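Let us work through a complete example step by step.
Step 1: write down the sequence.
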Amino acid sequence: MVPALAVADALRADGAEVQFVGGDRAESVLVPEAGYEFHQLKVVSLPRRSPLGAARAVAIDAGAVLAAVRLLEELNPDAVFGGGGYVAGPVSLAAVLRRVPLVLGEIDSHLGLTNRLLAPSAARVCLAFPLAGRTGKRYLVTGRPVPALASDRDAARARFGLDADETCVLVFGGSQGARSINHAAIEAFKGSSFRVLHAAGERDLPELTAPGPHYDLRGYISQFPDALAAADLVVARSGGSVFELAAAGKPSVLIPYPHATADHQMTNARYVADAGAAVVIPDSELTAARLAQEVGRLLGDPVKLQAMSRAALSLARPRAAADIASEVLAAAAVHRRPAREPRHSRG
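Step 2: predict the structure and record it as tokens.
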């Protein structure tokens, strides 16, 4: 939802009316909180290894497509932006069926199933990363939209009780957390001299214990841009959040989720590491000792950290949300353009 909301904010700043269609996951809470009207569909992912589950999912999602068609008939939008993933599938397909211009966004280094199926019908496919075979006028590399950054580092650090001269390591593993990172980080940093700000996810939080007063352990950090601004080094997975790290100029230790589709998190991590902005630890090699060693080595080399920060900024795409919004508005303008008067034949 973070990229979709960033695009929505850019569209609204340009004077567009924006409404969301989604499922019953985080979007049902985050979208209304952001001030947008939200229309909910019942939609489920397609199981890859259960024929019975797949049949059930197809039936549910077919109903979601019909509901989306009816919704588009009611709303009569000038364009639809599909943010990727199965939740975006029904309304994006409904846009194709209703001949409403469709712009797709892909936030990972792998074109997901929904976007692969819909790409031939899209006016534009906006990519976070250059992808092999995805070239030509239909595809545009925009980067991944990110939320507005915190501009006052001192205020951000004060929000988390950090002094100006304290070193801070930020640890997070995505909206659900990451069990391997959670346990390794707590063990690795239990006796550290630096401060740790750790967003563990609500799923794992009950089984975790902060190892000392230097360790701020939370399920979720609502002021995440402030957390990024406050941090000197980040330990994280390597999903789409790598663009937030780049925009904030943060050096990182990345531990890719090993079961991501097409191993795209490893591709993301290598993209950042090849630029000199990150160190990569495969999840299979993650131990508390290895994590402590890598973080200690980086924090002990300020020159290296500064170089990694500059490398991260070189990957940033600060105009991604605005560029995608421009594509959506351009598609909408074509849709609104009145049809030309037919020419009368001369006898």
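Step 3: interpret the result. The chain has a mean pLDDT of 90.
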